[in-house]
Design goal:
This protein has helices at 2-8, 17-57, 63-83, 106-126, 148-152, 235-256, 294-298, 303-316, and strands at residues 95-101, 129-132, 140-144, 157-164, 172-183, 198-206, 212-220, 226-230, 270-275, 281-284, 290-291. It is of the alpha+beta class and 318 residues long. The chain folds into three domains: 2-83; 90-184 and 271-318, Alpha-Beta Plaits; 189-258, Double Stranded RNA Binding Domain. Strands 2-3-1-5-4-9-10-11 form an eight-stranded mixed beta sheet. Strands 6-7-8 form a three-stranded antiparallel beta sheet, with helices on one face. A hairpin with a 5-residue loop joins strand 9 and strand 10. Helix 2 packs antiparallel against helix 3 (63-83). The longest helix is centred in the N-terminal third of the chain and has 41 residues, at 17-57. It is flat. The model has no long low-confidence stretch (mean pLDDT 82).
Length: 318
């Protein structure tokens, strides 16, 4: 932070408006983070002093207040501990979630909807803003808030729901959904796509009620990265598709360069299993973290899984 503040004092600093705005935004974020650490230590010391005074006087009136203070301090500490795991430059960005199901049946669509609701409820618990554009791009969420991407990046992968089949002969059957998580690219980053590198394929289909529907698939030719969207004749829909495509390409360029990547989804690589029957259990196949409260998990209480994955990633980078 000191280096950034020294940079802001230079005369030529304000000549580049975009760079100076980004730097000041980062200074503000770091100051707020430092202030939260300072406030946490101060709250801990004050509560410790209060506890010692109460112990000496054997005064029970403040016991409840001390416990409430401690619970608050613990929550703030846990949040700061998680934030310390965010090392990637993109972690502080908003997150774009795109969900796809394996198969087009009713159960497959329902599973995607359950996962969407899970992430919506989790976001609400965290105080994040949510934007849904289902009329433009199916099953897509924009989660707005600091460290939204850092929290959710480990959710990327195949989520498997397992349950008893109504047909006894089939036993247990599953539904698979792929969750893609990408950091939203903001306007401060200059990232251009050459028009000749994009092809847009248009499709005319009918929905489940037989109503005609139009859609399109925007493909970046050099990488094969694509975005599907509805009502392609509407300008705002095309603009949103371009924004998501840019975010995908920006992420890909940062980590691997714009080289050709394997297309399609590996449906065999399941990251998490949600077992409904016979014994409810949710298991993360990467960390082996598990919880039995399936209903609570689907109601957005997924922090245990998120933190377990982040901690594993932190250990792997040491």
């Amino acid at each position: 932070m000191a280096e950034l503040e020294q940079e802001a004092l230079k005369q030529e600093f304000w000549k580049d408006a975009k760079k100076s705005k980004k730097t000041m935004k980062e200074i503000k974020r770091l100051k707020e983070k430092k202030e939260r650490y300072t406030n946490l230590i101060e709250a801990w010391e004050n509560n410790k002093i209060l506890y010692e005074l109460v112990s000496e006087e054997n005064d029970q009136r403040f016991i409840k207040e001390i416990r409430e203070n401690f619970c608050h301090i613990q929550k703030v500490y846990e949040k700061l501990k998680v934030e310390a795991l965010f090392k990637d430059e993109n972690d502080k960005r908003n997150a774009i979630l795109i969900l796809n199901s394996k198969g087009k049946g009713l159960e497959a669509r329902q599973w995607v909807q359950e996962l969407l609701q899970m992430y919506i409820k989790w976001s609400e618990h965290k105080g994040f803003m949510i934007q849904m554009n289902f009329d433009v791009i199916d099953s897509t969420l924009l989660i707005i808030g600091t460290y939204a991407y850092g929290n959710l990046k480990g959710e990327k992968g195949i989520h498997c729901k397992m349950m008893k089949s109504e047909n006894r002969l089939e036993g247990i059957h599953d539904c698979l959904a792929y969750v893609d998580v990408i950091p939203e690219m903001d306007d401060e980053i200059e990232f251009q796509i050459a028009p000749e590198d994009i092809v847009i394929n248009h499709y005319c289909t009918r929905d489940e009620n037989g109503v005609p529907a139009s859609s399109a698939r925007m493909v970046h030719i050099p990488t094969g990265i694509e975005v599907a969207y509805n009502n392609p004749l509407l300008f705002k829909n095309r603009e949103l598709a371009i924004k998501i495509l840019k975010s995908k390409l920006f992420e890909h360029k940062q980590y691997s360069g714009l080289k050709e990547i394997p297309l399609g989804i590996d449906w065999e690589s399941q990251i998490r299993s949600y077992i409904l029957d016979p014994s409810p259990l949710v298991i993360d196949n990467r960390t082996d973290y598990r919880e039995s409260g399936v209903k609570d998990i689907l109601n957005g209480k997924i922090d245990g899984f998120i933190y377990a994955w982040l901690e594993m990633q932190g250990k792997d980078k040491r």
